[in-house]
Amino acid sequence: MATDIKALRRDFPTLAQIVNGHPLVYLDNAATTQKPQPVLDALNHYYRDTNANVHRASHALSGQATRAFEQAREKVARFIHAPSAREIIWTRGTTEAINLVAFSLGRHFLQPGDEILLSTLEHHANIVPWQQAAAATGAVLKVIPLTDSAELDLDAAGALISERTKLLAIGHVSNALGQVNPVAELIRLAKAAGAVTLVDGAQAVGHFPVDVQALGCDFYAFSGHKMFAPTGIGVLYGRSEWLERMPPWQTGGEMIKTVSFEATTFNAPPFKFEAGTPNIAGAIALGAAVDYLAAQDRAALMRHEDALLRRLVDGLSAMADIRVIGRPRAGAVSFVMDDVHPQDLATLLDMQGIAVRTGHHCAMPLMQALALPQGTVRASLAFYNTDDDVAALLAGIDKARELL
């Protein structure tokens, strides 16, 4: 497997860089993943050889662009096992996808006193839109607390879910702690109470297969740039029955059937939610990223990532002055060093060519709950990382400790 990973790394040009005189050790994958050559080629091919707008035009280049654009939608539907490509909406990313649901569904279907259930582990993008929806409708936010091990308290979640619960919005994997949430169980409980369910899958789709039908969720959102595709492109999966009922949240070109000064009729989903010229190149390149992942042995890549994660957690836990936060199971590991500001440690690591992230990781309520006002250092993995990367981080922490 090690030889295979080294071969796969050659598909990612950025990983071959020298940073501050050292080979790059890229451990910031939870923020954004690097892009393989086929994805870069797809972007280049579109802008170099096609570069036409999609839908309605009668010329050859537009036909090529439209076919590639809609084929990418079909690839994504298969990738997450959606029943239909018509349930795949292109967005700018997870944030826009959640905002779309919060505005179009939340502001039009919630009533005063209805409850929206979130969790303490959520990214700001899965908190703030629901705060705004609650403020606009009179709905109330409820929050699933954590156990002493910083995992979601399922007993508390069960007690919070009631006939007043109208929407559950939950992260699949914590971007801050790398914990995999029991989303299928939470969805089952919420659906039994009649609630709509949305899953923030930004940190999941790049690490393991996702089946939206098996999960049973009504909506699933994710970003291309966290699964080896470009920035500025993302996906919202939505059940047809909800997409048909929801009003558009942006209006203009592309999402209409007819327009007059007296009235407008809207297009069918997914186009009803895709106003204006879309990120055509991004969608096509996301399709290329799906093709790239589909060509790999994902089970083997998952085993490789899991082994790396265990080595990283074990190595950090063996350091007397390091505390690993939570129980990471996918991608990200957050930790703190005694009496050292996370930014200071990250700066010393960067001097050694090691890229990590520090701060609140867009999860300030979580950091408040954990009494970590300065946040954490977060090292996050992808399948192209190696044992050498883990060893470099652990050695880099030792060297930083000497300097400190």
Question: How would you summarize the topology of this molecule?
Answer:
Layout: H1 2-9, E1 18-19, E2 22-23, E3 25-26, H2 37-50, H3 60-79, E4 88-91, H4 94-109, E5 115-119, H5 128-137, E6 140-144, H6 154-160, E7 165-171, H7 183-192, E8 196-200, H8 212-215, E9 219-223, E10 234-238, H9 240-245, E11 256-259, E12 264-266, H10 280-294, H11 298-317, E13 322-324, E14 332-337, H12 342-350, E15 354-355, E16 357-359, H13 364-369, E17 376-380, H14 387-403
Task: Describe what you observe in this structure.
This protein is α/β, with parallel strands linked by helices. The chain is 40% helix and 17% strand. The protein has 14 helices and 17 strands. It has helices spanning 2-9, 37-50, 60-79, 94-109, 128-137, 154-160, 183-192, 212-215, 240-245, 280-294, 298-317, 342-350, 364-369, 387-403, and strands spanning 18-19, 22-23, 25-26, 88-91, 115-119, 140-144, 165-171, 196-200, 219-223, 234-238, 256-259, 264-266, 322-324, 332-337, 354-355, 357-359, 376-380. It has a 7-stranded mixed beta sheet with strand order 4-10-9-8-7-5-6, with helices on both faces. A 4-stranded antiparallel beta sheet has the order 13-14-17-16. A two-stranded antiparallel sheet has the order 1-2. Helix 2 runs antiparallel to helix 10, helix 3 (60-79) crosses helix 10 and helix 4 (94-109) runs parallel beside helix 5. The chain is globular. The two termini are 37 Å apart.
